[in-house]
Amino acid sequence: MDNGKVKLGLIGLGTVGTGVVKVLRDFENIEIVQIAVKNLNKKRDIDNLDTSILTDNPIEVVNNPEIDIVVEVIGGITPAYELLKTAISNGKHIVTANKELLAKKGEELFNLANEKNVVILYEAAIAGGIPIIMPIKTTLAGNKINKIEAILNGTTNYILTKMEKEGVSYEEVLKEAQKLGYAETDPTGDVEGYDSAYKITTLATITLNQRVDINNVYREGITKISAKDMKFAKELGYKIKLIALAQLTQDNKADVRVHPMLVPVKDCLASINGVTNSVVLEGFPVGRVMLAGPGAGEFPTASSVLGDILAISRSLGTKELLPFMKCNHTVNAQQLDIEETINSYYISITASNTPGVIGSIGEICGRHSISLASVLQKGIDEENTAEIVVITEKCIEKDINNAVEELKNNPSIVRINNLIRVME
After folding, report:
1. Residue 331 maps to a domain
2. pLDDT tops 90 at residue 3
3. Which CATH number is 314's domain given?
């Protein structure tokens, strides 16, 4: 930092990086010294961009002695991990939007940052434009947060919203989402829950105050959700959402997972539609708090990056910069296996139209200590089969899985269409 200006190095000039450059033009005290890009010749959607500060060698950025803050918006592990390690070792503060890197390599990077007395800020990595990390670390710091329920992926929420409102299949909506740019050509990271899993891992770590291991976070995507599931859920008073959940059990185990859930229509998360994201925090003394907004995009994400840059720039030169934002977790969470979790369940069954079939379903569930809360039977089709939808009372996951296996072997059951957890 010289001449009163904070010197910035940017790694990545895609959608988010472009937004960062645009919004920083309104801040005279911050100067972008260097930007690392993949292709020096690519045309950029930035008016009057000074191309002399571009480089295709990101090592130059992290080794540049002028730079105070390195902003990383390229995503992924390679080469981001080695680049940020080098930057931190060189005494540079970090702002990142890289949820995968934080989930997989966060412990190493945060420990190195503490050793080098620099900070890593990552507001943009969790919920795009929604401010969540700084409020947890400041305004809500006096609370014991024991539960998070969140919608953290706009692509999946858009798909599920369209399926619910228009009664169309997952495959149809996915194609439309890809055409509109809401889904990638390879949508696996979003639709299989990886993106949400990375985000809830970091969010759970700071909120539950225990280090959560991404390898022990259960993950299930939305690819098995059908238009019929949407229809049945609606008839029963629910909407289906991809929920990122983190909570502490009574014996202080961390239950952290991502999977579809039937959300009661009266719940605030049921009203989150389209590409919007939302995070609900529950704890004491605050009670239940909900934050919602755009979870991605050029300017919403750039807004969070900018907030982190300004937080660092305003504190540069202090003896200990932003001490409340440093990661000091010393306890590795004892994470609950999905088989041990307790939930209510939606089971969609196609069964032969024979007398006593519903009774058989109840008997099988009863043998596995599962009580039924409601049963919905639809009309008989031309194959003389019926659609039966069951909502269970709360039970242990391993018991429901055992019951489902027994149901599959019952001669009256044609197939189990889906098993989805239900939010209470």
Report:
1. no
2. no
3. 3.40.50.720
The predicted pLDDT at position 2 comes to 64
Residues 199, 224, 231, 398: which is the catalytic one? 199
Domain-embedded: residue 196 = yes
DSSP 276-318: EEEEEEEEETTEEEEEEEE-SSHHHHHHHHHHHHHHHHTTTTS
On average, the pLDDT of the chain sits at 95
Based on the domain organization, do 150 and 44 belong to the same domain?
Answer: no
pLDDT of residue 1: 59
Q: Which are the contacts of 123, defined by CB distance < 8 A and separation ≥ 6?
A: 131, 132, 133, 134, 304, 305, 307, 308
Average pLDDT over residues 154-174: 96
Q: Are residues 149 and 90 in the same domain?
A: no
CA dihedral 335, 152, 72, 9 (to 10 degrees): -130
Q: What angle, rounded to 10 degrees, do the helices at 170-180 and 154-166 form?
A: 130
Give the chain's domain count.
3
Active site residue 199: yes
pTM of the model: 0.95
pLDDT tens for each residue of 327-354:
877 789 999 999 999 999 999 999 998 8
Question: What's the CATH code of the domain at 396?
Answer: 3.30.70.260
Angle at 293 between CA 301 and CA 326, to 5 degrees: 55
Q: What is the 3-state secondary structure (H, E, C) of 217-248?
A: CEECCCCCCCHHHHHHHHHCCEEEEEEEEEEE
The answer to whether the beta carbons of residues 366 and 387 sit under 8 Å apart is: no
- Using CA atoms, how far apart are residues 71 and 314, in angstroms rounded to an integer? 16
> Letter for the amino acid at 229?
D
Q: Which two tokens stand for residue 71?
A: 């902003």
What number of other Cβ atoms are within 10 A of residue 185's Cβ? 5
- 75-92: average pLDDT: 98
Distance CA 309, CA 314 (A): 9
Structure tokens at 135: 């409020």
Give the pLDDT confidence of 128-140 residue by residue, as tens digits: 999 999 999 999 9
Identify the domain containing residue 188 by its residue range: 133-294
Residues 150 and 268 in one domain: yes
